[in-house]
Amino acid sequence: MLNSCVLLVMQDDLIANRIATIAGTTCAVVRFRDEKDAEQWLTDSQKVDLIIADTNTGQSMSAIVRNKEDYRLVPFLVTCRLGKTQILHTALITGATDILIINEENGKLESKIQYYLSLNSHIRTLLTQGTGSVSFTHPKTPWWKRVIDISVSLIILVLLSPLMLLVALLIYLDSKGPVIYKSKRAGANFHVFDMYKFRTMRVEADQLLNQLADYNIYAPSTGPNTPNNDVEHLCSACRAQGISCQRLLFDQDKPICEKAYLQETRTSAKFMKFRNDPRVTRLGSFLRNSSIDELPQLFNILLGDMSLVGNRPLPLYEAEKLTSDEYAKRFAGPAGLTGLWQVQKRAKGKGPMSDRERTLLDIEYSHTFSLKTDLLIIWRTFFSLWQKENV
């Protein structure tokens, strides 16, 4: 892909030279040490297919890129070292697409770089209009789907406006914090936008995620012999031999074996949803079970970020785990308020749906959605509004 271009914004010469060597075999590479120089280069309407920054320039460069209309969908990677991936959450919040672990072997780095170059090429193809020009605003929605979205969402907003005002007042009286909760979500073609919901959790609930991992209904179950805290940083091989770990890393100042870290990364759940979530307010449980908390997303539909029917837009920490060739297919379909998995097993109270089942249903919808299937899902949604699971 020699016609592709990678922009590096890095202060470390060694890292920049290594990545330039890896990427330069298939595409052009432009490198700047300073964000202002890179911004000026982008302002001159330069074509770029992938942007990679380091931890020093990542946050400011991400803000620059995402505020430029022509570059909002360009993949943006931030480099870090294995064991320092706590920057992932911050990077994703500021608009980065993924992290690039620089102490991995060259083959893995090249594979990830080529993946995002191919992804950008695919997105450009999807967004190319008949004239050959590319729109980087919102993913294109079929005209019939957009007509249904606008007409139905306007009707529902008018009819339910008294209810929404009442709910807003009750939330204000029930707990401290804003009435509307905004969160960054990844929708069709990884388009990132602010999704609106009525707030159902306590303020700063996001900061409690790490403390609630055991409540996650999508998390893989652990065996009865989970190691205790004093040896949790050792892998099974080290514990069996009774020796100290030979591949020790430090994650947030805590020791962890590299093998154990990689295993945890591979087995971590791609979705996060909690049964009997202790972060939920007194009113929040009712709003969630009745799906009333989703009503503000009608404004997202009017804005064109979402559709009535589609795949649920994902929080960025979930979306970044679904970038493999198989799972990324779910983002080829429109983001929606309701969809296939909402009217399948989970809504019928047949037990929790695994993250793989949910993703496969999203992929199925992306490949098969039509006017007929959308109308059928909308009809079935009316009978699935009250969730039978307390999640």
Find the structural class using helix and strand composition. alpha/beta
Average pLDDT level: 75
Strand order, largest beta sheet: 2-1-3-4-5
Sheet bearing the most strands, described? 5 strands, parallel
Query: What's the order of the H and E elements?
Result: EHEHEHEHEHHEEHEEHHHEEHEHH
List keywords for this structure.
12 strands; 38% helix; 391 residues; 5-stranded parallel β-sheet; single chain; Rossmann fold; globular; alpha/beta
Overall description:
The protein is an alpha/beta fold and 391 residues long. The longest helix has 32 residues, at 143-174. It is built from 13 helices and 12 strands. It has a 5-stranded parallel sheet with strand order 2-1-3-4-5, sandwiched between helices. The protein folds into 3 domains: 5-127, 3-Layer(aba) Sandwich (Rossmann fold); 143-205 and 272-381, no CATH class; 221-267, no CATH class. The radius of gyration is 22 Å and the shape is globular. The termini are far apart. Helix content is 38%, strand content 14%.
Put the structure in a nutshell.
This protein is an alpha/beta fold and 391 residues long.
How is the topology of this model organized?
Elements: E1 5-9, H1 13-23, E2 28-32, H2 35-43, E3 50-53, H3 58-66, E4 76-80, H4 87-93, E5 98-101, H5 106-127, H6 143-174, E6 180-186, E7 192-198, H7 236-241, E8 248-251, E9 254-257, H8 258-267, H9 282-289, H10 297-303, E10 307-309, E11 314-315, H11 316-319, E12 336-338, H12 355-368, H13 371-381
Parallel strand pairs: 1-2, 1-3, 3-4, 4-5, 10-12
Antiparallel strand pairs: 6-7, 6-11, 8-9
Helix pairs in contact: 2-3, 6-10
